[in-house]
Specification:
By secondary structure, the protein is an alpha/beta fold. It is built from eight helices and seven strands. Strand 1, helix 2 (about 25-35) and strand 2 form a beta-alpha-beta unit. Helix 2 (about 25-35) crosses helix 8 (about 215-225). It is globular and about 50 Å long. Bound molecules: NADP nicotinamide-adenine-dinucleotide phosphate. NADP nicotinamide-adenine-dinucleotide phosphate binds near residues 22, 44, 46 and 49.
Length: about 240
C-alpha cells in the first residue's frame, strides 16, 4: 500500500541533474538520488571518475556528460541532455587556500568562473530553455564560509556568499512556477577537496565530528523531494556544531 508520508521523500519518477558528480559530494548525491528512484544526468570533467559514479547508480537511464562548466560550450552540451528535469544540484566547485595579500587576478578569476559564474549561467540557460519543470528544485552547494569569516578563504567565501544573494532573488522570481531555490552550507565534509592533514586540523572544530558525504546527500534528497515543497530562498547550515 502506498504511504503518502514516505512518498513525500521519494524521488521516484524525477530526473535530477547533478554537477560535480565525478567526486565527493556530487558523487554521493547522485548515488543517493538514484537510490531514491531518480534518473540522474551526471556531469564532471574526468571521464574515468564520472564513469565510476555512473557504474554505482541504482536503476537505468542515467545520462553521463563530460564537460567543463566554466565554458559556455560545456554548459550548452549539458543543456541538450537536461530537458524536462525536476531538479539540479550544483556541486561542481573548487577550493584554494589564499590569503587576500597573496591573491592574483588569475586566481580570483578562476574562483569566480568555477564557483559563481558556472552554476549561475547554467541555471540561467536551464530556465531560459524551460528545462526545469514546475515544482522543481534548484540547489546550490554553498559552505559555512558563506556565513562566517575564516582566514585564507576570502575569494571562496565571497563567491559562496554571492550565491546566497542569487538564491533569495531567484526564489522569488521562480515562485510563480513553484520552483524552489535553496542552498546547502556544509562545514568540513570528508571528500577529495581536502588534504588529509587539513581534515585532521578540522576535527577539533566539530563537536559532532567531521561530516560525511552521505550527510549532505540526505539533505539534498530532502530539498529535491516534495517533502520540502514549502521551503525556498534559504540555506541549510550543516556544520556538526562547528559554528554555534
Ligand atoms: N567537502 C567539503 O568539506 C565542502 C564543504 C563546503 C562546501 N563544499 C562545496 O561542495 C562542492 C563539492 O565539493 P567536494 O568536496 O565534493 O569537492 P571535490 O571532491 O573536489 O569535487 C569537485 C567536483 O567539481 C567538479 N569540477 C570542478 N571544477 C569544474 C569545472 N570547471 N567544470 C566542471 N566540473 C568541475 C570536479 O570535476 P572533476 O573531478 O571531474 O574535474 C568534481 O566532480 C564545492 O562547491 C565545494 O565548495 C565542500
Amino acid at each position: 500500500m502506498s504511504n503518502p508520508a514516505r512518498n513525500a521523500f521519494s524521488l521516484e519518477g524525477k530526473t535530477i541533474l547533478v554537477t560535480g558528480a565525478s567526486s565527493g559530494l556530487g558523487k554521493q548525491i547522485a548515488i543517493s538520488c538514484a537510490e531514491r528512484g531518480a534518473r540522474i544526468v551526471l556531469t564532471g570533467r574526468d571521464s574515468e571518475r564520472l564513469a565510476n559514479t555512473h557504474r554505482q547508480l541504482h536503476g537505468k537511464g542515467h545520462i553521463p556528460m563530460l564537460g567543463d562548466l566554466t565554458e559556455a560550450e560545456g554548459r550548452e552540451r549539458l543543456l541538450q541532455v537536461s530537458q524536462k528535469i525536476n531538479g539540479v544540484v550544483h556541486c561542481a566547485g573548487i577550493q584554494k587556500h589564499c590569503p587576500i595579500r597573496q591573491l592574483t587576478e588569475q586566481g580570483m578569476t578562476d574562483m569566480y568562473a568555477a564557483n559563481f559564474l558556472a552554476p549561475l549561467m547554467l541555471t540561467q540557460r536551464l530556465l531560459q530553455a524551460n528545462a526545469i519543470l514546475p515544482q522543481g528544485s534548484i540547489i546550490f552547494m554553498l559552505s559555512t564560509a558563506a556565513h562566517i569569516g575564516t582566514r585564507g578563504v576570502g575569494p571562496y567565501s565571497a563567491m559562496k556568499a554571492g550565491l546566497v544573494g542569487i538564491i533569495k532573488c531567484l526564489a522569488l522570481e521562480q515562485a510563480k512556477h513553484k520552483v524552489r531555490v535553496n542552498g546547502i552550507s556544509p562545514s568540513a565534509v570528508v571528500t577529495p577537496i581536502w588534504g588529509a592533514d587539513q581534515l585532521e586540523a578540522q576535527k577539533v572544530r566539530h563537536p559532532l565530528g567531521l561530516g560525511e558525504a552521505r550527510d549532505v546527500a540526505n539533505a539534498a534528497v530532502y530539498l529535491l523531494s516534495d517533502a520540502s515543497r514549502w521551503i525556498t530562498g534559504t540555506s541549510l547550515v550543516m556544520d556538526g556544531g562547528s559554528i554555534l
